[in-house]
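Bug #77: duplicate submission created two jobs. Keeping one. Sequence:
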Amino acid sequence: MDDRVTDTAAVGVVPEDSVRHVRTVIIGSGFAGLGAAIRLSKDGREDFLVLERDSDVGGTWRDNTYPGAACDVPSHLYSYSFALNPEWSRSFSAQPEIQHYIRRVARQYNVLGKHVFDCDVTEARWNRGVSRWELTTSRGHFSADTVICAFGALAEPSLPSIPGIEVFDGEIFHSAQWNHDADLTGTRVAVIGTGASAIQIVPAIVDQVQHLDVYQRTAPWLLPRFDRAYTRIERWAFHHVPGVQRLLRAAIYGGREVQVVGLAKAPVFMKPLEWLARMKIRTEIKDPALREKVTPNFRIGCKRMLISNDYYAALDRDDVELVTDPIAEIREHAVVTRDGTVRSVDAIVIATGFQVTDSPMFEVIFGRDGRSLAQVFGEAGMQAYKGATVANFPNMFFLVGPNTGLGHTSMVYMIESQINYVADAIAALEQNGIRTVEVRKEVQDDYNRDLQEKLSNSVWMTGGCASWYLDRHGNNTTLWPDFTFKFRRQTQRFDIAAYEVSADAGTPVG
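Kept job's structure:
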């Protein structure tokens, strides 16, 4: 059954020539934005809108529909704590099942009527005169006292800059923009990238295509995917035995949290996982030359650890070639590598990830002094306070902001922690008659110095790799460097003492 959001009541049409004002605007409706909308509604705050650029909720799980798309976090941990899902069919869920869950939760909590779909935010600018945010969108103009940015880190595809890519005459698309009308049967396909998406795509299409070239810049570490279908008895228990799901969720959470010791505190403890990954290469790949190609030259955990049971087997075939020589150019019907080899190809799948530290959304948000978020981040790197607020951007809150990412467990846990913080902040504004809040620059700086100090001994900084976790300054502005329960403790309450506040709409902050 097609359960896409199509009900017209949820579209929220706004006249083009008017400005609609609400107390809070949420930008984006993935796990973060939808969670924020539900929390505001549960708190009795109904004067808000969710501006979503697409025609459905779901975010990255709506967009990434490529063959084999699935989650690498166990199903029971990858859900809202207030909306556990007894319907999970497997221990690791596929994309359609996750998207179905998100849609169901949106309907269950009756927040679709607060959405304005097909609404692309093209500018958000702080108006100091009236102390509010003014937003220009593809659906008209909005203003808001507070803005919650939930546009996500995995929203904007990162496209490689390869000479000649624009002249390619066959099918070419990014993994997050999969062209389902393209028939790859019996074709020669090139997959550029060997990250989380690529290792799912390659096994999913290898039996369909005539020949597959996989272009690898850096070999990833792979671990086994302990995936299986839940039995009928287990699914019955999830439905009918109180506490079973929460107990399983807690056990999964605890097991995952143990990895933090090796990732962030003492990388030597990652050795057992590296041994397991090396054994996986040894047992699943027969060709010694291919084994050497897929063996990373950095410590496990430095880049995102991936899980798969069929990627190596897909590479170790006569009709598949793993290419490690850099791409020099793309021609109308071929990919040419630096060594001069020309490989004919009918279709190219770009699986090069997302713009995490340089999101295009940063360029359209303008703060108190007129500078964009991109300019502010460009000067000192992507920094925030508790991943939620940025100096120079009053009354703006971020979900999945800087240094809230994870390399070991569910981002939904971090999202809910941040939602707690933001919801408490909005309550504090209302209860205390506060018009504006802006994090003190010195507080933000101290917080980030402490973060980078904690990160300095982590495997992400000492493991010998260059990853998308790092910005152009060499700082890890992506990951949280400690146990996630410590982050939840930090974000339990809004600490107003860390902020400059103003009760008068005419008084500038700072």
